[in-house]
Write a structure and sequence with these properties.
single chain, about 230 residues, alpha+beta, Glutaredoxin, 4-stranded mixed sheet, 8 helices, 4 strands, about 50% helix, about 5% strand, Glutathione S-transferase, Glutathione_S-Trfase_N
Length: about 230
């Protein structure tokens, strides 16, 4: 069986888990703490970043975007109309553009700050950066998320899904990152009903069930986190 090295509240890991669930790919999920940088893990994946997918033949595929492309290359054709990467080159460009937006821009401006400051630091040893959260970083992320929420609303006002008529990797990436922020109660959903409606559609999918069941020890999620009706 394939293996996915991931961490429950790593946004990139959540994206990979959604891909596997949507594509019906069975994989053994192994928890890897991002801050541990274990030598056995680094020997497989020198960057130490998550997630890391190990296919059944032993091939190590690192990083969320590379995993998405690899699984589309090797399994996408068999999905037919449910394929998460369009066949049309122009549409593929739009999916890749939005993947970069959420896996890089949204991550750097919002989800990485909040996941690190409000979750990771609770469990990290002091010598590795653990301790009280940086409230300046949290305030910046809370401000930044409003811009991204507005952009999602703008896209969905024109399209059925973020990149076009069908759900793609772009929707899964955006929803995966937002799900961590939503757990923490830092998404101002009341500011954009269009974005809220889109997110409710994605989180109602069977692939989202495992994510909604995740819990941070000692930290309850926002009241609507696992409410499919919001």
């Amino acid at each position: 069986m394939a293996i996915l090295h991931s961490y429950p509240f790593c946004p990139h890991s959540r994206f990979a888990r959604l891909i596997l669930a949507e594509m019906g790919i069975g994989a053994h999920i192994l928890e890897e703490k991002p801050w541990d940088r274990r030598l056995p893990f680094l020997e497989i994946n020198p960057s130490g970043n998550l997630p890391l997918f190990i296919d059944e033949d032993g091939l190590a595929v690192p990083g969320p975007g590379i995993i998405a492309e690899y699984l589309d290359d090797t399994r996408g054709e068999a999905m037919g109309d449910r394929r998460l990467m369009p066949r049309d080159p122009v549409q593929r460009v739009e999916v890749r553009r939005l993947l970069d937006w959420f896996l890089v821009k949204f991550h750097d401006e919002v989800s990485a700050y909040l996941a690190t400051e409000k979750i990771y630091k609770r469990f990290m040893p002091t010598e590795l950066g653990g301790g009280p959260p940086d409230m300046g970083a949290i305030r910046a992320a809370r401000s930044n998320v409003r811009y991204h929420l507005s952009y999602i609303g703008y896209l969905i006002a024109q399209r059925n899904w973020l990149a076009g008529d069908q759900m793609t990797f772009a929707d899964l990436a955006a929803a995966a990152h937002l799900s961590v922020v939503d757990y923490l109660g830092d998404v101002p959903w009341d500011e954009n009903e269009t974005a809220k409606y889109w997110y409710a559609r994605v989180k109602s999918r069977p692939s989202f069930r495992a994510l909604l069941a995740d819990r941070v020890p000692g930290m309850a999620p926002s009241t609507h986190y696992d409410d499919l009706d919001f």
